[in-house]
Amino acid sequence: MNLKYGVEGFPAEFQWGVATAAYQIEGAAFEDGRGLSIWDDFSHTAGRILHGDTGDVACDHYHRMSADIDLLEMLGVTHYRFSIAWPRILPEGKVSPINSTGLDFYQRLVDKLLEKGITPTATLYHWDLPLALQTDGGWVNRDTAEHFAEYAALMVRVLGDRVGHWITHNEPWCSAVLGHLTGEHAPGIQDPEATLSAAHNILLSHGWAVRAMRAVRPSASVGITLNLNMIYGQNDAVETIKAVELQDAFANRWYLDPIFYGQYPSALETIFGHMPAVLPDDMSQIQVPLDFLGINYYFSTVVVGNSSATNPAWPVPVARPEGPLTAMGWPVMPQGLRDLLLRLSRDYPMVPLVITENGAAYPDVPSTGTIPDRDRIRYLEAHIDAVHDAVTQGANVQGYYIWSFLDNFEWALGYAKRFGLFYVDFDTLQRIPKESAFWYRDFLHHLPPF
After folding, report:
1. Does 315 reside within a domain?
2. Whose CA is closest to 246, among 206, 199, 304?
3. Cys-Cys link to 156, which of 12, 128, 160, 340 (CB 3.0-4.6 A)?
4. 7 phi and psi, to 5 degrees?
5. Alpha-carbon distance 311 to 19, whole Å?
6. The total number of structural domains that make up the chain
7. 1 part of a folded domain
8. Which pLDDT band holds residue 309 (cuts at 50, 70, 90)?
9. Please, are residues 59 and 420 in contact by the beta-carbon 8 Å criterion?
10. Does residue 304 lie in a domain region?
């Protein structure tokens, strides 16, 4: 191993895990009373997903859950982050009717994890909004926030005696921007006004859900996961400094500031032409104390100033990445994770931090025996070292989860990109450990490199 530090260099109770999401691995899209989600509709719309792929089967985790948890035990992870499919529990998105078969699946999953000594971390929303709610406006409709809070209360009531760690939303930036501005993700809308409304209602649903969950189970540890990245300027020019501020407001502070300070960054007016519409009590509802902040980190961004007379501020030009890239075309920037953790600890010191996703896609090719993926191992080593550097400099980091446990349905890219520690043959659904799976196992077990 090329790691500077092993697990011994981290706090004793540090969470070491892997992460997945329901629509990306479960399959069983039309079975056992599950309702349709916006991703069922989106993936079955011609031209939306690369190669026409869908999540109908995905990794078939719904039927292979027990064997998959055996693989988690082999890895030696202490924690497993999964998401609950809202439409599998509430087919219409509302608290009635309840699909008891769907509830039973997650009860069995949690019980199996605990049997293996693995702590479950449950995400309530990883983008699979019930389609029935989308027909009423989806996240653009404020009522959806109320339905989400009711769903959250139900889940903590059913599973909260065994699940202690809860995440309300995964990457609300993606739900709002990719789903409502660029249209590349479900529900495929391209409307700036819908984007602002969806973002605000998702944040509102988060605040309401946290309160509803704590009313049911005060001991629940509740947070939210944001996709965040450091924004660097290519130079020190005045326009570049302004570009960094704008990009940071768009990518990071749009969600951080309302959650922790109860206000939106003023730069949103420059970006969208006006500030989000807010009712009098909304911001105080969004600004609810959290037990942790989840961070999904993959890369950071370098921007340059835009001095165009016709568009002096937005959009911000992004510099061409330098150095190695992953299969997603993302730059490998572990120093950005260190800097991000230190920045968050400085600007938002009121909450512990957990890296809920970090990983890389590479063009993994099956071979005899295990699957070599040395680039992924180097990526993970560098980023774990970056986390350690941040911890030694005072960042309150409590966990690190690799994305992903399995190769899976990678949203609009279908099955073309592989992030997993385990290779999935999507014809046979066989799981094959990559070298990175053995590397992570040995790291967690304090073993020498394989």
Report:
1. yes
2. 304
3. 160
4. -60, -25
5. 40
6. 1
7. no
8. very low
9. no
10. yes
Q: What is the pLDDT of residue 350?
A: 87
Q: How does DSSP classify residue 411? A: G
Q: Is 171 labeled as catalytic in the residue annotation?
A: yes
Query: What is the Cα–Cα distance from 365 to 367, expressed in whole angstroms?
Result: 6
Q: Are 243 and 301 in contact (CB under 8 A)?
A: no
Indicate the residue type of 143. D
Provide the domain limits for residue 81.
7-444
Predicted confidence (pLDDT) per residue in 59-85, tens digit:
999 999 999 999 999 999 999 999 999
C-beta separation of 400 from 14 below 8 A:
yes
2 within a domain of the structure (yes/no): no
Helix/strand/coil for 37: strand
CATH at 352: 3.20.20.80
Q: How confident is the model at residue 442 (pLDDT cuts 50, 70, 90)?
A: very high
Rounded CA separation 76/116 (Å): 10
Choose the catalytic residue: 26, 171, 245, 435: 171
Query: What would the two tokens of residue 387 be?
Result: 């986390």
pLDDT tens digits along 387-404: 999 999 999 999 999 999
Helix axis angle, 143-159 to 192-216, nearest 10°: 30
The residues that bridge with 402 in the sheet, in sequence order, are 18, 358
The burial class, CB within 10 Å (0-12 / 13-18 / 19+), for 327 is middle
Beta bridge partners of 79: 17, 119
- Given 8, 26, 184, 357, which residue is catalytic? 357
pLDDT score recorded for residue 203: 98
